[in-house]
Specification:
- With 138 residues, the chain is mainly alpha-helical.
- The chain has two domains: 76 residues; 55 residues, Ybab, Chain: A (2-Layer Sandwich), CATH 3.30.1310.10.
- Helix content is 66%, strand content 12%.
- The chain has three helices and three strands.
- A three-stranded antiparallel β-sheet has the order 1-2-3.
- A hairpin with a 5-residue loop joins strand 2 and strand 3.
- Helix 1 packs antiparallel against helix 3.
- The radius of gyration is 28 Å and the shape is rod-shaped.
Length: 138
Amino acid sequence: MSGERDEFRRAGADEVERMLSAARDRLAEARRSRDEGRGECVGDAFDGLVRARAGADGMVSELVLDPRVMRLPAIDLAEGVRAAVNQALRAALGDPESPVADLAGLDARIAEMQNQGLRQLAMIGESMDDFLRRAARR
């Protein structure tokens, strides 16, 4: 009977470990998809007369000014450049105002929970064995 309990306990622990490992794999895949999905993005101002291109690395790779914007006052041109660059960066890096999951922190927390869960499952199994031994003596 003890062998059956051990097998049942191992099967339960294996199932918990399998589920948590699968969750961690899905989390890693989500992180890869998020990182790969961000390429270069474009922002514009003044109906496309000012265009900026930025990458997920946070770098502006291109800034294009149509010659017609050179007639604008310097302060307006500067505002258009700033708006186009910020729009491109926001698209490439994600909106800083939107909530972003800390995937690395979440992964570490899942691993911690997995380890803690397996330790607790082992403790429960030991308690059950102890209880059954005492019950058998009576």
